[in-house]
Amino acid sequence: MSAVLECRDLWKVFGRRSATVEVLRGIDLTVAEHEVVVLIGASGSGKSTLLRCVNLLERVSDGTIHLDGTDITDPRVDADAFRQRIGMVFQSYNLFPHLTVLDNVTLAPRRVHRRSKEEAEQSALELLARVGLADKAREYPDRLSGGQQQRAAIVRALVNSPRLMLFDEVTSALDPELVGEVLALVSDLRRDGMTMVIATHEMGFARRVADRVCFLDRGVIAEQGPPEQVLDDPVQPRTRQFLHRLVDADQP
């Protein structure tokens, strides 16, 4: 399968001079078409920063990012045009509170892709129906549960038919009883063949949806492989230590 995403020797440094922090330190990552790569690691390990760099929300300090073979970190490329081919869903939903769910979902198709109102709304309503939100299309975000808001945010990213989907801890802001409905939707996307990179702290979910799990530690990919290998029989001591801490945290 061809590579949809390629990160080569990716560095991201925040700060200046002596007060710099290296958040990403030489990341190499290739994601094939239809592959689901799950990023795990402690807070501050670089998962969210990596996703933000891929979506060009953060400028990389060094290295390159290729989308379907094109270097999108080249300053001569139209970043907005490539960003339209990448869907990103944040942990905090980021829905516009003054717009209805339908208007949130159709905003980009109408304003950016210049689709007619009728065409944009038809596509949006079909997707909202698929995720069980058809009856919420005319509601405002504050009338929805957290799980419903997150599903609406996912539909907003999907409506533009992205080449690549990025998910940044999409369940971390949800109550435990709402987590399942969002994870089920992401699992459906996997069955549809969507290419995805997912940062999560839900190890059960990682095991279920990942083709490959990457453990990030202090800005590097310390270990990667099939979920059954990384999660059940990790090679690196740091990976084992991280997973043991998760198990201990779940103990009553």
Automatic annotation (TrEMBL):
<dbReference type="GO" id="GO:0005524">
    <property type="term" value="F:ATP binding"/>
</dbReference>
<keyword id="KW-1003">Cell membrane</keyword>
<keyword id="KW-0029">Amino-acid transport</keyword>
<dbReference type="InterPro" id="IPR017871">
    <property type="entry name" value="ABC_transporter-like_CS"/>
</dbReference>
<keyword id="KW-0472">Membrane</keyword>
<dbReference type="Pfam" id="PF00005">
    <property type="entry name" value="ABC_tran"/>
</dbReference>
<dbReference type="GO" id="GO:0015426">
    <property type="term" value="F:ATPase-coupled polar amino acid-transporter activity"/>
</dbReference>
<keyword id="KW-0547">Nucleotide-binding</keyword>
<dbReference type="InterPro" id="IPR027417">
    <property type="entry name" value="P-loop_NTPase"/>
</dbReference>
<dbReference type="InterPro" id="IPR003593">
    <property type="entry name" value="AAA+_ATPase"/>
</dbReference>
<dbReference type="GO" id="GO:0005886">
    <property type="term" value="C:plasma membrane"/>
</dbReference>
<protein>
    <recommendedName>
        <fullName>ABC-type polar-amino-acid transporter</fullName>
        <ecNumber>7.4.2.1</ecNumber>
    </recommendedName>
</protein>
<comment type="similarity">
    <text>Belongs to the ABC transporter superfamily.</text>
</comment>
<feature type="domain" description="ABC transporter">
    <location>
        <begin position="5"/>
        <end position="243"/>
    </location>
</feature>
<dbReference type="InterPro" id="IPR030679">
    <property type="entry name" value="ABC_ATPase_HisP-typ"/>
</dbReference>
<keyword id="KW-0813">Transport</keyword>
<dbReference type="GO" id="GO:0016887">
    <property type="term" value="F:ATP hydrolysis activity"/>
</dbReference>
<dbReference type="InterPro" id="IPR003439">
    <property type="entry name" value="ABC_transporter-like_ATP-bd"/>
</dbReference>
<keyword id="KW-0067">ATP-binding</keyword>
<dbReference type="InterPro" id="IPR050086">
    <property type="entry name" value="MetN_ABC_transporter-like"/>
</dbReference>
